[in-house]
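User: Some background: our group keeps a shared notebook of sequences we're curious about, and every so often someone picks one and asks for a predicted structure to add to the entry. Today it's my turn. The entry only has the sequence so far, pasted here. Could you supply the structure so I can complete it?
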Amino acid sequence: MQPNLRAKRIIVTQADTFMGPAICETLKARGAEVIEQVGSITDPETPGNIVAQAGKVDVLVANLAVRAPATPAAEVTDGEWDEVFNALVHPLPRLVRAVLPQMVARSSGKIIVIGSASALRGMRRTSTYSAARGAQIAYVQALGVEVARHNIQVNAIAQNFVDNPCYFPEEIQANPKFQDRLKREVPLGRLVAASEDASFVAYLCSDAANCFVGQVFPVCGGWIAR
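Assistant: Of course. Here's the predicted structure to add to the notebook entry:
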């Protein structure tokens, strides 16, 4: 049964990249009113402006993406570290500070972070990216238990090997070496479809998911189980 999202106003950040297009399409198909934010939100004032312009917000989907560096840990510069954390981590508390007061006042709301399973399983040459995604998860877990008493659910999807143009563009998917890697490393044997991932996001946006508090849901075709 598909969740009914009619009458829900949902912000999706960076709606034009990463999982944004698939999520927006799926949420609209379920009846939600989707507010699509596009472009960078690294400026400290941007998150507050997004929420102020949106007005009433029932759900915030923090879809944040950045190029994943592949730098050996000993060669990571302060600039690389700052760039990744500015894109993936720092916007989260700013978005929350902007949207949480109205959710608390209504005793209702949801915040969903689209994160990465790279924070759940070690990967070579990803120390910067994995650390930032790990910070997202720790923030979700702490925030989730803090605001649960206000009937606000905060959760995260930790994904990898999900079809999206940001991290798995067509040229990568067409590479036979990548297809071999899928078969070796991912028990599912294929990429998770964008629609499959987005359908789970839609479920977490719905009232059927009111029981989840500070949860991190791996969506990665079994990759972290290997």
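Suggested note for the entry: Helices lie at 20-29, 46-54, 78-88, 91-106, 127-147, 170-173, 176-185, 194-205. The mean pLDDT is 97.
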